[in-house]
Every structure is written in C-alpha cells, then in structure tokens.
Write a structure and sequence with these properties.
Penicillin-binding protein 2a (Domain 2), Beta-lactamase, 20% strand, 5-stranded antiparallel sheet
C-alpha cells in the first residue's frame, strides 16, 4: 500500500511539472513574445516645432530661432569614478568656453541612473552660428549627441509684451496640466502664448525603433510626423504699437485701440518688459527689478489693472437715468457742493455748473447731476444696468486670467464685508469712485457700447491657422435705451467738440471725435509700497489717475481709443494729445475712413 502511495505521489509531481512546462513553452508563448518585443522595441516621441505668431500685416511677432541642444549618453561613469563624464564635459568646455562644467555635471547626474537609457540634455540651446563650425568635431565624440532645438525669439523685444506673453521652461505644474510640456521642455506662460498654447505647441510625432541590449538602434520600424508649425495671426498692428509706445514715453498706464467689431489693433500696458529675458530663464537680478518696480511692469494692466473708472461711467449711468423715469430735460442747480447728512459731496468745479441737464452733465462732467440722479434711481438699478453694460464681468477677450472688477451694490457689500449699505456710497458710485473698479479693457468695451449700441467681444487673434475669428456681439440695451442712446452720443461729441467740453482744448484731430474724460482718485497706497517710494515721489503717487475714452468718427464710429495714465491728473490734459495723435495716425495708415 505504501509503495502504491509513493508511486502515485511521484506520478502527480511529474504530471504537474509536465503541465507547467507545457504552459510555459506553449500557452505563454504569445505573452512572452510580446514582452520581449517591448524590451527590444523603443518608442520615441518627437517634439513638434511651435507655431509662429505674426501681426495683421504678417510681420513676425514670435518666431523660432534656429539652434541645437547638446545631449550626453547615459552611464558615462564606472563604479569608482566619473572619469569618462569629466573627459566628455572637458571636450565641450574646450570648444564652448561659455559653458559651466559644474552646472553641466550637476544637470547630468540629476537625470542619470541605471534605469535611464535615454540621452541626457545638458545644454538647452546653442545658436546655429556657434555650433556649425564645431558640429563635425563634436560629432566625432560618441558620447555627445547634437540635436536641432529651436528657441523662441521675440523680434520686437518689449513691444506689446503683455499681449504677446512669453514661452519659458515648463515646471511640474505645467507638466501636470499638459504632458506635452515635459517633452517640449517649455510652455506658454502668459498672454497669447499661454491662451493659445494648446494650438501653438502642436501634437507630438512618434518613432518606433528596434534596439539592442546596449540601447543601440538596429532598425527603424515606424514613423509618424508631428503636427507642427501651427501659426497664429493677430489683429495687432506692430507699427502702430510702436508709434503709441514711443509717444507714451516713461509714463505708467495703458492704451487700447479697438475696432467697433472687437479687433484689437493695439494694446499696451506700460511699463513694458523684454520678453526674451524669460525664454532661457530670467536672472534673479532682472526678476527683482521687475517685481520691485513701483509702476508694476509685470502686471498686465489691460485686463489685470483695476482702477476706479471715475467719470468715464457717466455716459452709461446717464443712459440708465434717462431710461428709468428721469426726463432728458430734468436738471439740477449745481452749486459746487451737495450736503447729505453731515457730509458735503463736492463737484469737481468748486463754483458749480449752475443749471445742468444730462447733456451738460456729460459734456462738463458735472458730479452734482449724478449725485442727485442716483438718489432718484437708486443703487439697485444703477448696479444692475452697469453690469448689463459689461462692467463687473469679463469681456471675453482671448487673454488668460482676466479680472472682473467691481460694480458696488448692497448685495456685493453684504457678501464681501457683511455690512449694510449707506446712501453716501450710492453717491460715490455715481461718479465711479468708492469701491467701483474696472479694467481699461472693460472701459473700452463699455465705450464701444455707447458708440454703437452693441456689446462687442474684444479679440486679439485674427486667424487661428486657416480659421478666421468672427465678430461677436450682444444686444444688452432695452428698446427704450436704444431710443435714448443718441442723447448720450450727442453729449459725448460735445465733450470733444464743444467749447465747454472737458476735452475740447486738448484735441487736434482731423476727424470729429466723441468721448468722455475721467479723473479717478487714488484710494490708498499699501504700506509695503509706501516703504519703496522716495519721500520726494510720494506726492506724485497720490495724484489721481487720468482717463480718456473715445470713439471716431463721431458720426460713424469705427474705432475706440482708450487711454489710462496712472497719476496723470485730468484725463484731457494727460491724454488728449496722445489720443489725437493716434486718430491722426489711424487715418494716415488708412484704417479710418471719413
């Protein structure tokens, strides 16, 4: 019996072994064959070349400069020393003495490991002119691999920097959002470069090769070309952009030129900065100079600068007044001050404007008219109407991180501060002060509404590849407001053309212009900023901001020009000359037609 059990045991063991051998050699053949292919077939992603950006006249705005990257083969060291790595780096330093041996070695070691079989990039970019005389010599070294590597270049340097934006090295956050950024090594960080990054960067290609155990290529199996060179054409005219930048000079602020269809012909945030500084990595010295500058050159004031709009909103508010039960002939007797409770609310004109209706109130920017009108209409209707007109929300422009601003109301204050609303705040809001905040682009869009009766969506891209960006409009005015709008337009013409208009003495255009000046008080300067302002400059930085927003021709609106001069004082004084020059230049270039 024991012998039978022993034989049975041995039989079962041998049967199990035979079954296992059959499974491994026959049944698992496909599995291990696929696994072996993965070990010998290597898939490489091919980086696409970033699309270029041009202005409306096909002038280059952002291009790719031809150059090369330098890569080293992995595992250039033995167990005891880095001798082979040091020798290879010494060859590079000998030919390219500007390189830093310590940085090259540190970068190499950071990516080198037993598990890495890919070439390691140690130099991101060397210009074509530098590398070509050395190309053949360096290629003789089996440890050095030179590959094409275009570098972003901005021919105009500082011009339109906040609109164009820049490309820089991708960080981990960028890679998490966009895996292609890891392959390319860079990504759009701001402006158009960021907004259209997914289009501009293209789609990676793919190459499959058969490699040996030593990672040497034996055969090419397949190749898929990357989708690249996706170009972008903007609505911007770079020559007009330069014309405006030259005349704005050393001031801080913003200038926008927009067609009534929403095309941004020029947009500048001042001061500007050199985009090329960011492509390879800005130095800490340059970075500190930017972020510590009192005039905040790194802020895109077009969409991120929030300012009290001052009297620029009086046009829209006047339309709300005369469409909400107030007659167009209703008038006030402006004596220069209005008493409410224990507080006096002053008009900018100390002696007062006398008898003032809606036309005169806009033409001469009478504060008293808007104070008293706000008490009749109320903050609820004022706030609702101005939001309908585009304030307190994004314009929809194709730029990233646009701010929405603030149109004050009871609900807004309760939500933000959990405090009640006071009637004095209604009066402050009626002249664009208090907690009222808007961006220069919002005021431009708002002015376009006053000019045409339609709320247009601004845009900077003209052609995305072969696709043309079409105008987008929204009809936000009621039928009665449309009927009343000519009254406001008449008053805006008088601002620039009537003898008593707030801008009349500063205009020298060849074509008739309509508009609205504004003076916005600086509410306060943060303690951190105060510490960086010289005592002699403090008076300047407490001066009011100057607004001047316009359209022309006044009888057939085609373009909007909005200028904000930080600490500029009166809008007409600070910006009238520049606005005139811009309209004359638009006519000279054939944009404006009489």
């Amino acid at each position: 019996m024991r012998i039978k059990l022993l034989i049975s045991f041995f039989f079962l063991v041998w049967l199990f072994l035979l079954v296992r051998v059959f499974y491994l050699s026959i049944q698992s053949h496909n599995y291990y064959e696929t696994l072996s292919q993965h070990n010998t077939i290597k898939t490489e992603l091919i980086s696409p070349i970033r699309g270029e950006i041009h202005d409306r006249q096909n002038r280059p705005i952002a291009i790719n400069k031809l150059g090369f990257s330098i890569n080293l083969k992995p595992h250039l060291k033995d167990k005891k020393s880095d001798s082979l790595l040091d020798e290879t780096i010494a060859v590079l330093i000998n030919k390219l003495p500007d390189l830093n041996a310590t940085k090259l070695k540190k970068r190499y070691k950071r990516k080198n490991s037993y598990y890495n079989h890919n070439d390691i990039r140690v130099v991101d970019f060397v210009s074509y002119e530098k590398i070509m005389p050395l190309y053949s010599l360096l290629n003789l070294n089996n440890s050095i691999i030179i590959t094409p590597a275009p570098k972003r270049f901005y021919p105009s340097g500082t011009l339109a920097s906040h609109v164009i934006g820049y490309v820089a090295r991708a960080n981990q956050k960028d890679v998490d959002k966009d895996p292609l950024a890891k392959l390319i090594g860079s990504t759009g960080k701001s402006g158009i470069e960021k907004y259209y990054n997914g289009y501009l960067e293209g789609i990676a290609g793919e190459r499959q090769v058969q490699v040996s155990a030593q990672n040497e290529v034996i055969d090419n199996i397949s190749y898929t070309k990357p989708i690249e060179n996706r170009d972008l054409t903007l609505t911007i005219d770079m020559e007009l952009q330069k014309f405006i930048a030259d005349r704005f000079k050393a001031r801080a602020g913003a200038v926008i030129v927009m067609s009534v269809s929403g095309e941004i012909l020029s947009a500048s945030s001042f001061p500007e900065y050199d985009l090329n500084s960011f492509v390879s990595g800005i130095s800490s010295k340059e970075w500190n100079a930017l972020i510590k500058n009192i005039d905040t050159p790194f802020t895109n004031k077009l969409v991120n600068g929030l300012y009290p709009p001052g009297s620029t909103i009086k046009t829209g508010l006047g339309l709300i007044y005369i469409s909400s039960g107030i007659s167009q002939w209703w008038n006030v007797n402006c004596k220069g001050t209005m008493k409410l409770g224990k507080r006096n609310f002053r008009c900018w004109k100390h002696e007062g404007h006398g008898t003032t209706d809606i036309r005169k109130a806009i033409r001469e920017s009478c504060d008293d008219y808007f104070y008293k009108g706000s008490l009749k209409v109320g903050i609820a209707d004022m706030s609702f109407g101005l939001k309908q007109f585009g304030l307190g929300k994004k314009t929809g422009i194709d730029l990233p991180n646009e701010f929405i601003g603030t149109v004050p109301s009871r609900e807004w204050k309760r939500r933000k501060f959990n405090r009640p609303w006071y009637i004095g705040e209604t009066l402050n809001s009626s002249i664009g002060q208090g907690n009222f905040l808007a961006t220069p682009l919002q005021i431009t869009q708002f002015t376009a509404l006053m000019a045409t009766g339609r709320l247009v969506t601004p845009h900077i891209a003209k052609m995305v590849g072969d696709e043309e960006i079409m105008p987008k409009y929204e009809d936000v005015l009621t039928p009665y407001q449309h009927k009343r709008l000519p009254i406001i337009q008449q008053a805006m013409r008088q601002v620039c053309q009537s003898k008593k208009g707030t801008a009349r003495n500063f205009m020298r255009t060849k074509i008739p212009v309509a508009g609205k000046t504004g003076t916005a008080q600086v509410i306060g300067i943060s303690q951190e900023v105060k510490q960086r302002i010289n005592e002699r400059d403090m008076r300047y930085y407490t001066r009011s901001h100057a607004w001047f927003t316009t359209y022309a021709p006044s009888n057939d609106p085609q373009y909007i020009v909005t200028v904000l001069v930080e600490h500029g004082g009166h809008g007409g004084v600070a910006a009238g000359g520049l606005v005139s020059d811009i309209y004359n230049e638009l006519e000279r270039r054939g944009y404006l037609k009489r």
